[in-house]
Amino acid sequence: MASMRFAKGHGTENDFVILPDPDGELQLTEETVRSLCDRRAGIGGDGVLRVVRTNALGETLAPAARTAERTAWFMDYRNSDGSVAEMCGNGVRVFAHYLRHAGLVSEDRFEVGTRDGAKGVVIESDGDVTVDMGRVERLGTSSAKLARQVVHGARISVGNPHLACEVDAPVAGIDLTALPVLDTEAFPQGANVEVYSEVGPGVLEMRVYERGSGETRSCGTGIVAAAAAATPEGEDATWRVRVPGGECTVHVDASGARLSGPAVIVAEGETLLI
């Protein structure tokens, strides 16, 4: 049975299996991703981060990711169900932290390649990681049927699709046990659904149902989507966003959004699941 090195990391308890594959030799199938992310029979995680040199990908980058060509390292992110995702805000922070941890980069500032293009990252002096998430697009409004209620919110693109819904009740009481039912015309590829409320000046509480993973303890792009939805159009704002797994800070302005928060490597080892 083949084996491979892995690491395990998380950003505000949004956790990932990290697979170092610098030369792009690994054929990462949906079945393998599901096995790795299985919390009983595998390592466990909300997704997989494959660490690959960008130049090893050849011509496989989609047009939306072309600015990633200038980066040294590419984050090949997969949801826990094996599906490919365009972007992952917590994943980028963990990925960047892993690059420094593994000695693959030495700088405090560098770029990470993603399917949504190159993302600038900064390793802060306190160990947190800040990611320039790029432009955040407001695409109108829509609604979703959750298990017990219908919620309404803003369609937001952070490189991947979101429906960010402000709710009056405490977010802890929202039922996110079932797959949200979305407008397929508005979201032909599905979407992450966030429910959030403002609990103090500049402070949001949020929970999320992630496309391809279910409810997670945190979602970086979802945090940004909620912050963008809560910011009056045309204004700048800085938000502290509390999620079940911790807290991140988001600054939103006309140029885009910057996401700051912790990133942790908790284990390294060898897996026989490849």
Per-chain topology:
Layout: E1 4-11, E2 14-20, H1 30-37, E3 47-53, E4 73-79, H2 89-101, E5 109-114, E6 117-123, E7 129-134, E8 137-145, E9 150-157, E10 161-166, E11 181-182, E12 192-200, E13 203-210, E14 214-216, H3 220-230, E15 237-243, E16 246-253, E17 256-261, E18 264-271
Parallel strand pairs: 2-3, 10-12, 13-15
Antiparallel strand pairs: 1-2, 1-18, 3-4, 5-6, 6-7, 7-17, 8-9, 8-11, 9-10, 12-13, 13-14, 15-16, 16-17
Which key features would you list for this structure?
274 residues, mainly beta, Diaminopimelate Epimerase, Chain A, domain 1, 2 domains, 13-stranded mixed β-sheet, five-stranded mixed β-sheet, 3 helices, 18 strands, Diaminopimelate epimerase, diaminopimelate epimerase activity, EC 5.1.1.7, isomerase
Short synopsis of the structure:
This protein is mainly beta. The chain has three helices and 18 strands. The strands form two sheets. Strands 5, 6, 7, 8, 9, 10, 11, 12, 13, 14, 15, 16 and 17 form a 13-stranded mixed sheet that branches. A five-stranded mixed sheet has the order 4-3-2-1-18, sandwiched between helices.
